[in-house]
Specification:
about 130 residues, three-stranded antiparallel beta sheet
Length: about 130
């Protein structure tokens, strides 16, 4: 069963911001400081990778690429995924999604349809003949 953004958000919601979240046994769990110290860096990397894949599934490639870029440093160092990271990434994703919807509505209102070829757009400079 694939892990979802909701799984990460639920785990982050019930944790202190600096709590480590890890993916194991097909679920997202919280780990305290002692548990984090005994968790392999590869487990932390897998947790981040699963989170990025969950973001991709819900929000698309653009958001996943943004998250991947932002988590590149901690991931390369084998640092754990923290609750605040999940919360921040989901806020960014939700904001980007809202912005995209707003732009789509603005384009619709203006009559700009990116699916229309330039020469198929109506000419707005001509007035209707009487």
């Amino acid at each position: 069963m694939p892990v979802t953004v909701k799984s990460f958000v639920d785990a982050a919601r019930h944790a202190a911001p600096d709590t480590t979240l890890k993916f194991s046994d097909n679920e997202v769990t919280q780990t305290g400081a002692i548990g984090t110290a005994f968790t392999w860096a590869s487990t932390h990397r897998e947790s981040m990778a699963r989170f990025i894949n969950a973001l991709r599934a819900k929000y698309g490639d653009s958001i996943a690429k943004t998250a991947s870029a932002m988590l590149r440093g901690p991931m390369a160092e084998g640092k754990p995924l923290k609750a605040y990271m999940v919360t921040a990434m989901v806020r960014i994703a939700e904001g980007e999604q809202a912005l995209a919807r707003t732009r789509a509505v603005e384009n619709f209102i203006r009559g700009d349809d990116p699916d229309l070829v330039e020469n198929q757009r109506p000419d707005r400079t001509r007035r209707a003949s009487p």
